[in-house]
Amino acid sequence: MDALTGLSSPEAEVRLQRDGPNELPAASRSGTAQLLLEVVREPMFLLLVACGVIYLALGDRQEALMLLGFVGVVIAMTFVQKRRSQAALDALRDLSSPRALVLRDGAAVRIPGKDLVVGDIVLMAEGDRVPADIELLEANYLTVDESLLTGESQPVLKQALEAVDAGAAGPQHLCFSGSLVTQGTAQGRVVATGPRSALGRIGASLGGIALDETPIQRETAQIVRRVAMAGASIALLLSVGWALSRGDWLGGLLAGLTLAMAILPEELPVVLTIFLGLGAWRLSRERVLTRRIPAVELLGATTVLCVDKTGTLTRNQMEVRRLWVDGAAFELGEQPVTAMGHAFHPVLEYAVLSSHRRAFDPMESAIGVAGRHWLQGSEHLHADWTLVSDYPLSRELLAMSRVWRSPDRRELLVAAKGAPEAIADLCHLPPEQQQHIAAQVAALAAGGLRVLGVARTMFATESLPAIQHDFDFEFVGLVALQDPVRADVPAAINDCHAAGIRVAMITGDHPATALAIARHAGLNVDGGHLTGSELDALDDTALAERLRDTQVFCRVRPEQKLRLVQAFRARGDVVAMTGDGVNDAPALKAAHIGVAMGGRGTDVAREAADLVLLKDDFGSLVTTIRYGRRVFANLRKAITFVFAAHLPIIGLALAPLLMGWPLILMPAHILFLQLVIDPACSIVFEAEALEPGAMRQPPRRPEARLFDAALVRLGVLQGLGLLVAVLAGYVLGERLGGGADAGRTVAFAVLVLGNLGLIQANRSWAASASGPREVNTAFRWIVLGAGALLALALGVPQVAALFKFTAPPATLLALSAALALTTWGWCTAAVALLHRRTWPQSSSSWWPTRRSP
Ligand code: ADP
Ligand code: MG
Questions:
Q1: In the CATH scheme, what architecture does the domain 304-315+486-614 have?
Q2: Residues near 819 by Cβ (< 8 Å), separated by ≥ 6?
Q3: Where are the alpha helices (DSSP H) in 459-548?
Q4: pLDDT at site 14
Q5: What's the gap in Å between 397 CA and the centre of ligand 1?
Q6: Which residues hold their Cβ within 5 A of ligand 2, which is an ion?
């Protein structure tokens, strides 16, 4: 094995087989026993068992057996659901586990951290989690945060194996799994993986996917609790009333339990879990990874998107376009190399010298490419020079220098590049020359180019100064690079604006470049720009004032993003923020939705984020918002349905007591409806596409609740309609068919068919839904399934006997169908009447009107 080629793939495979994956044993995968316990704790399960016991006490074997059958159904469904959501979570966890850059077969490739094996050569840079225990072969200013292991959050300096004295105390050349690279780059060899690593030995574990509660989950839990309490009290009243009026205690208890089953809104949490879980799963197919599942729903409410310029709006593929030296400019194009005058050689030469030889940064790679091409064959490329020292880019100074020794010279050569202001500052230029350069920078930047200043100096002694300012730099020229806006960005930004979402750009770049790119991308730049230093000078009220119309933030340091997020939040905005660097983590955490870039993002940024875009582009962010809106809209539809569907069942459970009728619905019927129809229906609503106009409407208000008066009104109106139809069915059935069983048969048929009408009515709430809807396969299956089950229950005497149905004559069947059709019409009318008014149509322009006080 050679340090420069790494392991071969077959060798790595062998070692992986031998040592096992580089991961820690999962903390808690719930076993079958635990799942069983969860099932047994379900209230529905307990109600079923109680009813079964009463039937047995009544000597009604068959009913008891049927209930037992349903118990089986409950168990199986809960099992399947839990297993499925667990499998989905495990898959997400695998995707979100750290990745490592390793040399395999001589090339650097990014592999899942769990595939690392002992002997792999790993490349690490600022922001990475160390993926295994690693012995350093090479380290440049490498400091790591080992707080996960030692609790000590002070970064520790690490050095390459050969740089450490044999007698030095402590493992200076070792980086431990789970620690964080806070600065520098390194290359090293894996010495221990998985449970054998330092982290594995202490049994610690990194946070996986968080499942904390969002407002809507808390809201749901609260609603469920209240309804359940109310249901229990009503059921108790019913039991007592029944028992007292008819002197039949067991029958009363049964009626009460039946009512409790009818009221219990046990579908709501299930619906929520299914919608959010499947939402996350659908997003993963769009290459968007959800680290915090509830974020899916919050996305729909996003009002401000704060995005990075470089790499998110632009392609992050740079190219040197122009050089500027002393008043003359050169445009790099297709011309022969000799077309470039000698005057332009030094600026490129020193730009190359101030870059890393093996560049990570696309800007430095572009400079390297341009240098190798335009300086080929000249004396300006210095492969034989050796690096003596370097001064990295810092918070205070946007410039970096590298110090070189040439074989044929005594002095050291220093090359610097950076933001033009910073370079002008380092060169101590007189004001008029500074202005001259600034004018040129503005002209280049106005074309959307990123401009760098280049400077050089010589230094005679080995004792280098501590800071770049202490060199006496000479200004060489300007390099302008192009990083085009991604092709799909203008359309995506347009979509955001139509959807009432504001897009703000945050960048470390020059104001003129930032504004030009913003214009290309189609951002609203009427409000001008705000720079990082202006930001620092503003107090909170002044900043809030500026935020009303500013969408371009430039020369912003990552730390300042946090203040921006907080200021937007203080205005009542729902903020989504993108980020990729180590210093972005606090802002990503503070944003409602932190979005990390999966490709170029650091592990730290990904760990802090709620979403990870595996495709790294702005377009997927807009897709994600679309999904978020869809989830919320569909949740409301599903919940309205659940509300409306419960009302007739409750009514049917109460009516016998009030009217002196025999029990119409028995536990079996309710179970049939609740266990078979309801969950299936939530699947129909989950699969419903986004309403056609939904991305042309403003975001829902952040304080908007999932359950609001509008939803309850609609549900109640629809549910009452269904109840009237079902009661009418019972009465007519009983009169025409002769007896309670015939009445029950018709009532049940109307209920099942009416539920289908109810679904159809709620599938689309948009006013413009007159056209054909997208095919919803789940709905077709439900219609078929419900029809088949109904036919079975009515047509097969044995089954009909279980449900206490009679074989209905054709007139009664036609009657049921007619009643169901009427309900469908009623429910659709209710949607038109109530709902369309509460969903406002979009206004064409939003920011001046919508937010101003
Ligand atoms: P962005 O928001 O576009 O990602 P950065 O924060 O990466 O901006 O960079 C901000 C500024 O810092 C750049 O405009 C440039 O002037 C300077 N800069 C960034 N990287 C380098 C580098 N490798 N060498 C010199 N200057 C750099
Ligand atoms: Mg950058």
A1: 3-Layer(aba) Sandwich (3.40)
A2: 725, 726, 728, 729, 750, 753, 754
A3: 489-498, 511-521, 532-537, 540-547
A4: 93
A5: 11
A6: 310
What is the β-pairing status of strands 502-506 and 304-308?
Answer: parallel
| Helical spans, DSSP H, in 160-248 | 198-202, 215-246
pLDDT for 485 = 95
- Strand-strand pairing, 575-579 and 593-597: parallel
Distance in angstroms (rounded) separating the CA atoms of residues 367 and 7: 31
Catalytic option among 115, 128, 308, 617:
308
The two tokens of residue 773 are: 């809807």
- CB of 418 within 6 A of ligand 1: the answer is yes
Distance CA 653, CA 239 (A): 11
Contact predicate 318/363, CB 8 Å: yes
Q: CB of 740 within 8 A of CB of 659?
A: no
Strands 552-554 and 529-531: parallel
Residue 165 pLDDT? 65
125 vs 451, more confident: 451
What are the CA-CA distances from residue 681 to residues 228, 309, 685, 757, 759 (Å)?
21, 43, 6, 12, 7
Number of residues that make up the chain = 853
CA 445/CA 516 separation, integer angstroms: 7
Q: Are 268 and 642 in contact (CB under 8 A)?
A: yes
CA dihedral over 679, 683, 686, 689, signed as positive or negative: negative
Q: Give residue 377 CA to ligand 1 midpoint distance, Å.
A: 30
- Choose among 678, 577, 692, 685: nearest CA to 631: 685
Tokens of 828: 């659709």
Residue pair 190/150 in contact (Cβ under 8 Å)? The answer is no
HEC letters along 252-302: HHHHHHHHHHHHCCCHHHHHHHHHHHHHHHHHHHCCEEECECCHHHHHHHC
pLDDT of residue 851: 33
d(CA 407, CA 413): 11
**How far apart are the CA of 42 and the centre of ligand 1, in A?**
57
Cβ–ligand 1 distance for 415 under 6 Å, the answer no
For the stretch 459-484, pLDDT in tens is 988 788 989 999 999 999 999 999 99
Q: Do residues 302 and 574 touch, judged by C-beta distance below 8 A?
A: yes
The CB of 532 under 6 Å from ligand 1? The reply is: no
308 is catalytic: yes
Identify the CATH number of the domain defined by range 319-482.
3.40.1110.10
- Residue 583: CB atoms within 10 A of its CB come to 19
Whether the Cβ atoms of residue 262 and residue 595 lie closer than 8 Å to each other: no
Query: Does the pLDDT of residue 549 top 90, yes or no?
Result: yes
Asked whether 309 lines ligand 1 (CB < 6 A), one says yes
| Domain ranges for the chain | 9-24+100-201, 32-88+212-287+623-838, 304-315+486-614, 319-482
The CATH number of the domain covering residues in 9-24+100-201: 2.70.150.10
The CATH H-level superfamily of 32-88+212-287+623-838 is: Calcium-transporting ATPase, transmembrane domain (1.20.1110.10)
